[in-house]
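Known limitations

Files may contain more than one protein. Parsers should not assume a single record per file. Below, a two-record file is shown to illustrate correct handling: read the sequence, read the token line, then continue until end of file.
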Amino acid sequence: MRIRSELVIGALFGSLCLAGCAADSEASDPSYPSDGAASVPTVAASSEAPSDSSSTDPAAQAQAQAWLDAAVLPPGAVSATASVATFNSYQGWPCGPVEELEAFWTIPDATVSETANWLRENPAADLNTTSLVPMTGDSTATQTTVGFIPAPEAQEGIVYTIMARDDGVVVRAEIAAQTEAAVCPTLPDGVLRGAPGQG
């Protein structure tokens, strides 16, 4: 009986080790120009769906990918994987289901304020920013968000989170596109839903 238990424990341990190795096998793709805005090729971004959305809506998937493909980052941005930083918050998409993607970049020698302001002034595709006030150049903020939506009051689009680190900043893009079946929960009277990227 003891031998059988040891064999089962050994098999489980081996399976866990293999799963851990598979999770660490992601590679980044630093295929960005160094002398201009960094556009995002379809295959370059580290894309994941962190939510528990189980949707597989082709039109919404295509829309999310189109927004990711149209995203531009400040000069010097380099594509990265999710392991580049640990973020403490995530954008909630209250209307769903949605199709989601994530992408990450590092920008050496950049600050949170200058990166946020650059993103505000360079919207992806036909999106409009929800960040209406620029950050001051002397801001000491270590993290901020900049949101973009396709239309007023929309609950889909792109939310960039910019976080400081010792050698510059790291940027995460959370992209969500609503499926055809998406619905928004009814809010109590007098309650308004904040725009993506506004907290």
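...continuing to the second record:
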Amino acid sequence: MQMWFWKNIHKIAIALLIPTAAPATYFANPAMPALESDGLLKSPPTWASVRIGYMSDNLYRQRYDEEFQIDGKSTPSSYAKMSTNAAIVTLNFKNWLDLNAIVGSAQMQIDHDIYTKQQLAWGVGAKFLIYQTKSIFVGVDLKYFQSDQQPIYLASSGYAYNVVSNFKLNYSEQQAALGIAYRIQMLSPYIYLSYLYSKITPDPITLIVRMPTYDGFAQSYSSSVIDKRRWGLAFGATIVGGKKGSISIESRFFNQNAINISGEIRF
């Protein structure tokens, strides 16, 4: 790579080597399998039910580091922003186990350097109660989430470098959380201790961009990154309406900083 290239777009090279992020999933109330006990459709009691919902997640800060150093050099961490909107389908068994499917779209921004377009995001998960009384619920939440994000352009020194190669950031995430909830009539506040592992792998490792100031192209390299902080907390509250539907508001801290709003209706 010629010296003039690194002088002109060194910020882009750095941006490709440091944190990138992707959509992250929410937890929702650990008592959720037992909160909505009635359905909209009147039917005889059954051991299984279905809930359909929607969630909007705003990830406004998450930090990533290189998985491996390149040429013995390390780059600083970077902050990422992400917005995710998705539909949720939940299969409930006997008001103690939830199996979730999440399908939607996500878009991310890394600092002021990397911008992607809306891309497919999907995930699966399970939530089950391990202890409950009339007002106290303890549950475990497990999730897997994935999205292949495609950068539109990279920004540096006031210029936009359009991506012309077939370059993607393959993101995968596994998370687990232990939570406790307390129900007071229609209101149920909750808290989680969470563990998150996420990884982003470039595919391929090379990226070609169009130079904005003249008719030419340039190439840079990237490496996989992993989340900087694994442990975190989540706080939230759920409003239950007539045992048939609910709305939850949740905030996540430490391993991620995010706000989530979700709602579900039981059938």
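Parsers that stop after the first record will miss the second one. For reference, the second record is described as follows. The two ends are 60 Å apart (CA to CA).
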